[in-house]
Amino acid sequence: MAGHSKWKNIQGRKNAQDAKRGKIFQKLSREIYMAAKAGGADPATNAALRLVMDKAKAANMPNDNIDRAIKKASSAGENEQYDEITYEGYGPAGVAILVYALTDNRNRTATNVRVAFTRNGGSLGETGSVSYMFDRKGYIAIERSGLSIDEDTMFENILEAGAEDLETSEEVFEIYTAPEDFTTVRDALEKDGYTLAQAELTMVPQTLVELEEEQQEQLQILIDKLEEDDDVSEVFTSADM
């Protein structure tokens, strides 16, 4: 995982996401609804629901919004159905882009995603064209401020918890896990008293693509256009930004 630091990207995009918080809550409500409808309203027995609830809390989504989405799923009719769809494409300098969508209208979402790519310097690819360039991983970030623990000790701790790898910078410990071990590792670290700045399942690019400043700006516009779509849940790229 060396060289695949996500922290600077997370921090760099935080302010932009804060400005779009209302739309983020709307998307999270849909994910909570889907998870609760598929696996039940109890996060203790529904791992998918617990994960998205954690994601919502990390985004400072009010508990009332979370409860409302779960209650809606519990009373929803059989005709309400959303599909999970993955779109794959390319951005400036051949950057690989994965787009995850949750939609009740496949044609609408496909059209919107295609337009976002073609109008903003990208191109939509075929299924499988870039997904092989990413690995599904659990990702946990622990900020080092206030911690009196060195890298070697942290590495021993995360291995004992079941994690795969550790990336260390002056600001943060970044921990990677196999997707099936993510919940176990996260819970173990929290039990050990660590405060997690970020904890999520994510897609990690196998190789990062460096971009010129102008290309970075062009890619950010494309990402913003994709994320503005109500149906788009997550966007991952192989850009080193």
UniProtKB/TrEMBL annotation:
Residues 5-75 form the TACO1/YebC-like N-terminal domain. Residues 1-21 are annotated as: Disordered. It is found in: Cytoplasm. GO terms for molecular function: DNA binding. Its main location: cytoplasm. GO terms for biological process: regulation of DNA-templated transcription. Residues 82-238 form the TACO1/YebC-like second and third domain. Gene3D superfamilies: 1.10.10.200, 3.30.70.980. The keyword Transport does not apply. It holds the Pfam family TACO1_YebC_N. It comes from the Bacteria. Belongs to the TACO1 family. This is Probable transcriptional regulatory protein CI088_10025.
